[in-house]
Amino acid sequence: MTDAAETDWLTVPDLVERLGQSPSRVRKLIGERYLLAARIDGVLKVPASFLRDDAPLPELHGTAMVLGDAGFTDEEALEWLLAEEDSLGTTPIDALRAGRKTEVRRVAQALA
Questions:
Q1: What share of the chain is helix, strand, coil (3-state, %, to 5)?
Q2: What does the mean pLDDT of the chain come to?
Q3: How far is CA 19 from the centre of its chain?
Q4: What are the helix (H) ranges across the chain?
Q5: Average pLDDT of span 45-55
Q6: Of the chain's two ends, which shows fewer C-beta atoms within 10 Å, N or C?
Q7: Is the separation of the CB atoms in 51 and 57 below 8 Å?
């Protein structure tokens, strides 16, 4: 797993506050891959970088689906998104946030 100390993580209660949604709606967003989460010390957490303007990053859902189609578990997809990717010159999540969705998904598809 990516070094948790380097990532700003949000818990479900944090997400409820940031997104203005109920805990069950936040869990549904995670279950449907609009957000990806990891259990850290038994607590479900989402990287803050997966949000923009207090909403799930729009590019994340399709990218998570591509990674799932490539055989990644949600935890593996989350780990890949946060790790440095040589072919992108940055982390995939930073590339997504910079508007490089097509390039990120192309690299993700090549991992299948």
A1: 55, 15, 30
A2: 94
A3: 15
A4: 12-19, 23-31, 58-69, 74-82, 92-97, 101-110
A5: 96
A6: C
A7: yes
Rounded CA-CA distance 72/98 in Å is 23
Cβ-contact 67, 75 below 8 angstroms:
no
pLDDT band at 112 (very low <50, low <70, confident <90, very high): confident
* C-alpha atoms less than 13 angstroms from C-alpha of 9 in its C-beta half-sphere: 20
Determine the pLDDT at residue 87: 96
CA 17 – CA 85 distance, rounded (Å): 32
| pLDDT tens-place string over residues 23-43 | 999 999 999 999 999 999 999
Residue 6 banded pLDDT, cuts 50, 70, 90: confident
The per-residue b/e assignment along 72-90, b for 16 or more CB within 10 angstroms, e otherwise, is bebebbbebbbeebeebee
Task: Please report, as a single letter, which amino acid is at residue 2.
Answer: T
Instruction: Measure the CA–CA gap between 38 and 98, rounded to whole angstroms.
Output: 23
Residues in the chain: 112
